[in-house]
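User: For my dataset I need records formatted as: sequence, then structure tokens, nothing else. Please produce one.
Assistant:
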Amino acid sequence: MDFFNHQDRARKQTSRLIMLFVLAVVALVCAINLLVALIVWYGQGQTINSVELAARAGQPAMSFLDSLSTERILTISAAVVLVISLASLYRWLNLRGGGHVVAESLGGRRLPPNSSDFYERRLLNVVEEMAIAAGMPVPPVYVLNDDSINAFAAGYQASDAVVGVTRGCMTKLSRDQLQGVIAHEFSHIANGDMRLNIRLMALLFGILFIALIGRFVLEATVHRHAMRSNDKRNSLPLWAIGLALLVLGYVGVFFGNLIKAAVSRQREFLADASAVQYTRNPASIGGALKVIGHGSGSDISSPEREETAHLFFGSAMHFRLPMFATHPPLEQRIRRIEPTWDGRYLAPQARAEAERDNPEFVDTLVKQGSAAAHIGTGTSAKAAVALGMAAAAAGVATAATTRPASSMPTNSTASSNVSATGAASLHDKARDPHQARSLIYTLLLAPPSRFVHDQQLDMILQQAGSEQYQHVLRLIPTIKALAPEQRLPLVELAIPALKQLSENQYRAFHALLVSLMKADGQIDLFEWCLFRLLSQYLSGQFDKVSPVKARYSKPDPVADDIAVLLSYLADKGHDHPDEAANAFQMSLADGAFGSLGIRFQPPANSLKPLNQSLTRLTELYPHIKGRLIKSMVACGRADGVLRPAERDLIHTIAAILETPVPAGVLAQC
């Protein structure tokens, strides 16, 4: 499946449906104009009887069309659009706070990354695996207190995304089935569905606000038992005006929900297909759907379920009419995945069976998320194979919980001396908010042979305290033994834990981070990747960050910036300038950038030009970003060897562009 082509086709179909939303708003504006014209006409005493009396008296009577003046129509239209826009903006600003806002409004409970509960640990481990397969950092995970089987992804962009599941989803599905559900949610993140969902929710609220105004007027009038006008014969009662606005608003919501449901159904099919791509196992998501059909259901008890129904993996509520359903029929989804399905559903997995399949999570005293146990157990190995993540050597033991084998090069010149126990220990530390900071500090230390190493340790002691200083000292031997390709995945694994820091803790962490990087007066590529990744995924948690608005639908205005980016990548992956130039030219063909007329530009020592170019490239439309990802991968693989520096650079730039690298794209050469 061509990931980006599927995205483009789904985006075009969804764009047509969004146009229907615009038409619904236009129809609502027209209806309110007619209502106001009727009020004016009626308020002038122009009833049928009064018109007849005026005709008999030879006096001109005001016709209904006379009340539809151009000035009045423009004023009313502007006012209605302004009200809808302000209400939509209000709702959008509330939702833009990040996925955690939606998750908490649904009653979700955030799981600590270092949880020792059997089901929670298994869920967190699966989310980590799917993040790897989707080329994203690990998002925070929430659990809803429902026994049904359902899940959701929420957020405005990948950097503030969260994943949520019901308790039933966490406890009733097998590991493979849970992988399918989580993969489905990750595909919503990758396909840009979260941003679309928030926009739909905001627009629907704007339309609903018209009805809320009508309800307010109606209730206020009923409570007063009076009309505003003294002319009770010819003045239109306020309750009638309120009722009319109420009806018009809900008619708009009626059609808005129809369109929202159609948009949602279209995106669900794409998410199901993408989930199969991530897991390489159609039976995973198919099995989860069959368990829902067996009787577990997917209903959600939250009062917010109607507004958020289109966010979920399965139908969050029962719809009497199929046209309002936010999800395709269960049977249809299963047959799309498994055309030869025999019509039989699957029973939920019992706790005893789950424990037999996942012994590494049974005892709270065993190593949590142990990479060694994960590779050594039969069922976990099966899961790893399904993801293409089986690691054959101890040197890549961390792959099972940090990066798939398809993205962990075996032809690297460096090898890891970290034992399976040491790898598991690093993972545990990455999941703990306190020790995750020590882990990041240690990754930034210069080699002990350099004088700046001792200076950096002094900074840690003075700014972070003796406890973290001791943690760093104990971590140095293990971190030193890591292969280059294993370092950045640890940073990504630590992100959920770092998001749990308080604001003061984050400020102190960020300040020390900058000090450690600047200690030697220069920033190398790994330091740049580490800092940009952390900034990308933590800034939105602790600072007000406005989402980047797409400006460039074509690559021509940013051709020079594309040249800068690809030149940096080609330079880092090749030792000779001629080889770098050749890789640069090959990359242009894969991204269809050959017509831009750009050439390889040997980069300077500074990373400032790359930062400046990335600022503009983030404003590209998603389909152009997808082409850029293809070009970067082609550039890295031009010589048949994808070096760790190339891999880190591609992964970091993809994160900055909010365009996850699809599963398998960074496969070994």
